[in-house]
């Protein structure tokens, strides 16, 4: 049913209730002329006269009475549905569909989700972490997170924090193998590599050289498709790893890991939150977006400053100064 046709039926029903077209117009926020036109359009559409009208009185015809009796139950049901929809929009309750990357993101999302669930226990989050890029509409997404802005049309993206890539080693590794002093020395070290869970591709290490990000291939001593497992291998001292700042930051601050070659830390990409319309969101969606932005924009727990990185590297190199003989043999290779 077209909206103007529904409006005409509402005007007719209100006029019958109040016995006055002018009062019906005022009750609906319309001018008397607009109400009269709406009623005339409805009568032309139905092909019957609904009211006997004079300048002073208004009464239903037989056809008008029959139409009102048939239309009122459906009209009441529709009005109730509209009222419930408006209430649902304003209530912080109901399902909340959240998507995000599987790699690296669970430790970022959980504190926000934990706080949100405590604040709004009537909301039922439905969280799907997946490294693939799904379909915004088909997946019924309310709020999404990803590295880089969303490629979906009509989606609003808000930057949260840069995603750093940091070469890290555990003290146990440095004691046994020493620390590389330049990118070229990595060839002499045991390095981990990450296999993208979505594509199956083994990713090169991304590093910053001067002001550009470049790919630096490594021969993997360990290859995994899960950053948590890779992090455990680095913490155990088996390999050097290129870890995200989100993952590495707490370990570096606790001195469980040492950042290396920090002048080459890449932060070419950022983590974004993305969502649909700014105006037509249920309050539960808006509340979650607001909390995520408040807690995650430039969150220091997710990002290490250049000063922190340099200080941690200098401290680690001083504490674990050994250079492996194999690494030392590459000292003449370019960085």
Which runs of at least 5 residues are low in confidence (pLDDT < 50)? 324-335
User: Helical content, roughly?
Assistant: 40-55%
SSE order, one letter for each helix or strand: HHHEEHEHEEEHEEEEEHEHEEHHH
Per DSSP E runs of 2 or more residues, the count of β-strands stands at 14
The best one-word shape is rod-shaped
- Compute the separation of the termini in Å: 70 Å
Biggest beta sheet attributes: 7 strands, mixed
Mean pLDDT, to the nearest integer, reads 86
Give the radius of gyration.
Answer: 32 Å
What's the total helix number? 11
Indicate the structural class: alpha+beta
- Strand residue percentage: 15-25%
Description of the molecule:
This protein is α+β, with helices and mostly antiparallel strands. Helices cover 41% and strands 23% of the residues. It is built from 11 helices and 14 strands. It has helices at 3-18, 21-27, 32-46, 62-90, 106-119, 171-177, 227-235, 245-253, 283-296, 306-319, 325-328; strands spanning 51-53, 58-60, 94-100, 123-129, 143-147, 156-169, 191-195, 202-203, 205-209, 212-216, 220-224, 241-244, 258-260, 266-275. The strands form 4 sheets. Strands 3, 4, 5, 6, 12, 13 and 14 form a 7-stranded mixed β-sheet that branches. Strands 8-7-11 form a 3-stranded mixed β-sheet, with helices on one face. Strands 1-2 form a two-stranded antiparallel sheet. A hairpin with a 6-residue loop joins β7 (191-195) and β8. α1 packs across α4 (62-90) and α2 (21-27) packs across α3 (32-46). The longest helix has 29 residues, at 62-90. The protein starts with a helix and ends in a 7-residue tail after the last helix. The relative contact order is 0.14. Mean pLDDT is 86; it is low at 324-335.
């Amino acid at each position: 049913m077209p909206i103007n046709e529904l409006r005409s039926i509402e005007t007719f029903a209100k006029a019958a209730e109040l016995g006055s077209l002018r009062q019906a117009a005022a009750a609906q926020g319309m001018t008397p002329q607009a109400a009269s036109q709406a009623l005339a359009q409805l009568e032309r559409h139905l092909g019957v006269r609904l009211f006997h009208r004079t300048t002073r009185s208004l009464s239903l015809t037989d056809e008008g009475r029959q139409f009102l009796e048939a239309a009122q139950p459906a009209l009441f049901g529709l009005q109730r549905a509209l009222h419930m929809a408006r209430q649902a929009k304003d209530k912080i309750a109901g399902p909340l569909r959240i998507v995000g990357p599987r790699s690296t993101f669970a430790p970022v999302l959980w504190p926000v989700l934990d706080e949100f669930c405590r604040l709004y226990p009537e909301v039922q989050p439905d969280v799907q972490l997946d490294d693939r890029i799904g379909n915004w509409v088909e997946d019924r997404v309310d709020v999404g997170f990803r590295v880089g802005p969303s490629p979906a049309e009509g989606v609003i993206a808000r930057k949260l924090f840069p995603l750093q890539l940091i070469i890290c080693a555990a003290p146990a590794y440095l004691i046994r193998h020493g620390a590389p002093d330049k990118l070229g020395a990595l060839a002499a070290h045991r390095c981990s590599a990450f296999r993208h869970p979505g594509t199956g591709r083994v990713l090169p290490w991304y590093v910053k050289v001067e002001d550009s990000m470049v790919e630096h291939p490594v021969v993997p001593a360990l290859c995994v498709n899960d950053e948590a497992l890779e992090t455990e291998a680095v913490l155990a001292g088996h390999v050097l790893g290129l870890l995200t700042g989100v993952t590495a930051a707490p370990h570096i601050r606790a001195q469980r890991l040492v950042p290396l070659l920090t002048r080459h830390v890449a932060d070419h990409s950022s983590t974004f939150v993305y969502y649909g319309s700014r105006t037509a969101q249920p309050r539960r969606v808006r509340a979650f977006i607001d909390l995520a932005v408040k807690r995650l924009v430039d969150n220091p727990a997710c990002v290490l400053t250049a000063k922190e990185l340099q200080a941690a590297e200098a401290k680690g190199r001083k504490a674990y100064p050994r250079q492996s003989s194999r690494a030392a043999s590459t000292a003449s290779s370019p960085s």
